Amino acid sequence: MQNQSFTPKETLAELDKYIVGQADAKRSVAIALRNRWRRNHVPSPLREEIAPKNIIMIGPTGVGKTEIARRLATLAQSPFIKVEASKYTEVGYVGRDVESMVRDLVELAINMVKKEEEERIRGVAEANAEDKILDILLPPAAGVGSTAVPDGAVSFTTANSDLPVKQEDSSANSTREKFRKMLRDGKLDDREVEVEVSDTKSTPMVEIMTTSGMEDMQSNIQDAFGKLFPKKKKAQKMKMKEAQEAVINEETAKLIDHDKVVQEALKRTEQSGIIFLDEIDKIVSKGGGGGNSPEVSREGVQRDLLPIVEGATVSTKHGMVKTDHILFIASGAFHLCKPSDLIPELQGRFPIRVELHSLGKDDFVRILTEPKNALVKQYVALMKTEGVELIFEDDAIEELAAIAVEVNEKTEEIGARRLHTVLERMLDSLSFDASDKSGETFVVTAAYVKEQLSEIVQDQDLSRYVL
Fold this sequence. Notes:
By secondary structure, the chain is an alpha/beta fold. The protein folds into three domains: about 1-115 and about 265-355, Rossmann fold (3-Layer(aba) Sandwich); about 125-140 and about 165-255, no CATH class; about 360-455, Helicase, Ruva Protein, domain 3. The protein contains 19 helices and eleven strands. A hairpin with a 2-residue loop joins strand 6 and strand 7 (about 320). Mean pLDDT is about 80; it is low at about 140-170, about 210-215 and about 290-295.
């Protein structure tokens, strides 16, 4: 796909628009993404031998690990799923088994391919839907389309000079085209019409309390019931705009070849899927557990994870999926353990290790102002909806960054997430009164920031609860 042909420099430039600093981590993922594209251009026998170089990101919370992975997936347009490693348990324990992450990735890929297909055939579906709506507004005259010729009339196929039929045809077409124009111009939007849509409640709902390794059972039984109980149609009255959308959806569903969608989705999952394993340090055994179940389960999750990362074949309801070429990006704070505490076999499956550094005052200033979705820009846009022009002075932003760093040092290090709490607390009174200040301009100064936050910052007990 086109977006996967980004060069590492282009990928880095795109990531820089949203993520401040962490150049090493961004370089690593940019190279990993480009290697995907390179592998697809390698001749066939060798192509299968080239395995992705999985990455492990090490760094405290709130420094951009998850954000890097999220933005990378958007760039790559690859099937991407973020999972918490801590929610998986060893086979035999109650909880989710590690293979379910691959099944979830397949479902996500199917939705992705289906959406692309819907966009591709949208024009055809809209044209078909428009004709259906016009058929409802102007039902075809009786006998239209039949080959029977009424008494005293001349068949159109045998005589081109069949003027009466032509005139009727022409008149009907003229009216139909007038209605078509009105429909496209939105003049019929407020009109109510009755359309037939699929009844989603026609298939009985089935809910099963499942244990580890049985997540697919509920959806399999649901699918079986769906085949036993075909979808029924029901007539529903709705406004023209809603009716058009409903009929377009019905027509789109008819045009999509589900088997081809599944086939393409499985291929994409295998060749370009990305799984982001967050909180991988939470499944590291801290040692000295004495065989108690949580520690056993943790190490068991690592052992279950090993074949998936190494390359295994996972059974899904849509078919078998090989994980040999899925890219795994793991991340963790590792403040209570080290990456070397992972079982050696799993360590070997993550050859690239990147350390993300803690963020300082200068980083916070950049985070507040530089990215496309910078927090300051978000609050300015929010206040604009109330008619209030919010202006941040440079000194105020410096002061906010300094306070965020100070609170992180005194209480708990939560990285850039601290900026959310500090900004929200500082703008608390303005957010409350903004609806009464329409047309006003509000300037945030360094003095205002200190006035709003100094008491909380100085009182350590209070800042632990509030910030």
